[in-house]
Structure formats: structure tokens, C-alpha cells
């Protein structure tokens, strides 16, 4: 048999990514990210609360490591991820109740998801920026 040096099966690079599949993948990634952030922060707070030594970690963090812009950007990032996950979850609930399962409506819902998420993120940024002044 000849060695033709070609893949056994098609690879992902030959497929065009669709909005629905991309949103589904990002929905899972955002869920894992939020779970990781919540559990790690709970574990850190639990260790700080149950430790026998006095830990002055918060003033040290605020004084040397966490600057104002870093806290602002992390807060905005977490709010964005939570917002995206929530809106996309509502979209999945609509699909589970057999609403908007049509291909045209799914594309329209994807565009609405992007538009609403962008507008709310922009509003959050403006509100947080005004509170900083």
C-alpha cells in the first residue's frame, strides 16, 4: 500500500465554524471559568479564615499587586463572562422549550445575543468609569 501522506479523517480546519457551535463552545468555557473562579475564591477565603496565624494579605495585595486599573478590568471581565453565560443560557432554555429552533431564528438570536451583550458591557464600562472619577 502506498503512503499518500494524507490524514485518515478530515481535520477541524476544513470546517467553517458556525455561530451556534462557537457560542456553545464559549458557553461551556465560560461556565468552567466561572466555576473555577468561584471555587478557588471560596477555598482561598476558607484557608484565610481558618488559619491560625494572622494574615494581612488584603492590604498587601492592594498596596503592591492589585492596582486600580487591574481591579477595574478584572471586575469588568468577570461581569462580561457572567453576562454572556447568562444570556446564552437563556437562549439554550428557549431552544429546550422548542422556541426559536428554526435556522433563521437561531441566527437572529445569535446576533441579538452579541448586540445585547455588547450594549450591556458598554453600559457597565461607562458606569464603572464614572464611579472611578
From TrEMBL:
<keyword id="KW-0496">Mitochondrion</keyword>
<dbReference type="InterPro" id="IPR000701">
    <property type="entry name" value="SuccDH_FuR_B_TM-su"/>
</dbReference>
<keyword id="KW-0479">Metal-binding</keyword>
<dbReference type="GO" id="GO:0006099">
    <property type="term" value="P:tricarboxylic acid cycle"/>
</dbReference>
<keyword id="KW-0472">Membrane</keyword>
<dbReference type="GO" id="GO:0006121">
    <property type="term" value="P:mitochondrial electron transport, succinate to ubiquinone"/>
</dbReference>
<keyword id="KW-0812">Transmembrane</keyword>
<dbReference type="InterPro" id="IPR034804">
    <property type="entry name" value="SQR/QFR_C/D"/>
</dbReference>
<protein>
    <submittedName>
        <fullName>Succinate:cytochrome c oxidoreductase subunit 3</fullName>
    </submittedName>
</protein>
<keyword id="KW-0408">Iron</keyword>
<keyword id="KW-0349">Heme</keyword>
<dbReference type="GO" id="GO:0046872">
    <property type="term" value="F:metal ion binding"/>
</dbReference>
<dbReference type="GO" id="GO:0005739">
    <property type="term" value="C:mitochondrion"/>
</dbReference>
<dbReference type="GO" id="GO:0009055">
    <property type="term" value="F:electron transfer activity"/>
</dbReference>
<dbReference type="Pfam" id="PF01127">
    <property type="entry name" value="Sdh_cyt"/>
</dbReference>
<feature type="transmembrane region" description="Helical">
    <location>
        <begin position="64"/>
        <end position="84"/>
    </location>
</feature>
<feature type="transmembrane region" description="Helical">
    <location>
        <begin position="29"/>
        <end position="52"/>
    </location>
</feature>
<feature type="transmembrane region" description="Helical">
    <location>
        <begin position="112"/>
        <end position="131"/>
    </location>
</feature>
<dbReference type="GO" id="GO:0016020">
    <property type="term" value="C:membrane"/>
</dbReference>
<dbReference type="InterPro" id="IPR014314">
    <property type="entry name" value="Succ_DH_cytb556"/>
</dbReference>
<keyword id="KW-1133">Transmembrane helix</keyword>
<dbReference type="InterPro" id="IPR018495">
    <property type="entry name" value="Succ_DH_cyt_bsu_CS"/>
</dbReference>
<feature type="binding site" description="axial binding residue">
    <location>
        <position position="85"/>
    </location>
    <ligand>
        <name>heme</name>
    </ligand>
</feature>
